[in-house]
Amino acid sequence: MKTKTFCDSEVSLLGMGNMRLPTSEDGKIDFDRAAAIIDRLYNNGVNYYDTAYVYHGGESEGFVGAALKKYPRESFHVATKYNCRANPDFKAVFEEQLERLDMDYIDYYLLHAIGDSTVDTYLTNGCVEFFREQKRLGKIRHLGFSFHASLETMRKMLDFGGWDFAQIQLNYLDWLFYDAKAQYDMLTKAGLPVIVMEPVRGGRLAKLTDETEAQLLAAHPDWSIPSWAFRFLMRLDNVKLILSGMSTLDQADDNIKTFNDAEPLSDEDAELLFSVCKDFKKQISAPCTACRYCVEGCPMEIDIPVMMDIYNKFKLNGRFAARAINDHEHSAKDCIGCGACTVQCPQSIDIPALMDELRSAAES
Predict the structure, then answer these.
(1) Which of 113, 216, 313, 349 has minimal Cβ neighbours within 10 Å of its Cβ?
(2) pTM for the full model?
């Protein structure tokens, strides 16, 4: 298992995220199946397990603690997080987390999901000072933050200072089309080591289109599609740890193979991956130019370009993004499939079909 030195510890490059664990019919964590994944990973050299106060409705921390109880405490690292929106009482949260995990200390503690709307709360409500005191007392070994916000907010966090590490969403799609590269460069310049979350974008990069997968398989038939995403991240020296939320043993086995044997992408392979990524984004996106020719003839008064924008976000980010249609008075839910929009569309988009897909996704 590949390892890196991270905050003065030898940590496996692959870490297990515990947000997408297998569940039973009642929606609760299926302990036996989930614990089998931890056992498989631990016995193959994975020594970092990430959870949070809110994962699986609060079940995840207790599961992680129980599943790891059989192993020597110093043989693995646990990370968990404080979410100010879930419970503002950070002192009570921290004590509850130690109790859930059944541990005396937490190796890596994070302020959870720093956003543009929450950053000021985190930096002014006293939690940072409290967690730094817990670090002094040895109950926290390293303090950092996970991040979902603008570069301006990133600068605010860095200016505040005193962090040991940062966790960001980083994958080849976000590197090309969003600001993941800028975030990575900013953290690297500041001297903060990076943990990666969403390396395959919540599973979206684990299965591409048939056409784009064919290009990658032609280059390396023995590589799995997800492994391309991990190999890309291996090119980045300041990535010290890559989290993967595994929900099956097959996923764990594929990741173990990748992180045992894989080398970083060559320049040639990286060039191919970026080309494939651009094709993939085009193939899953509606080529709407927001010309608005479709709008005037819509009998339901739907702002179709807005719906197309939501559709494209849904195709990249998952079903939760489709729910944005509920914020609009006239939406994809009102489409009657008359086709008046289609005959006006210069791009020949089958708008009623996409509206139906969007509505189904929003309702699921």
Answers:
(1) 313
(2) 0.89
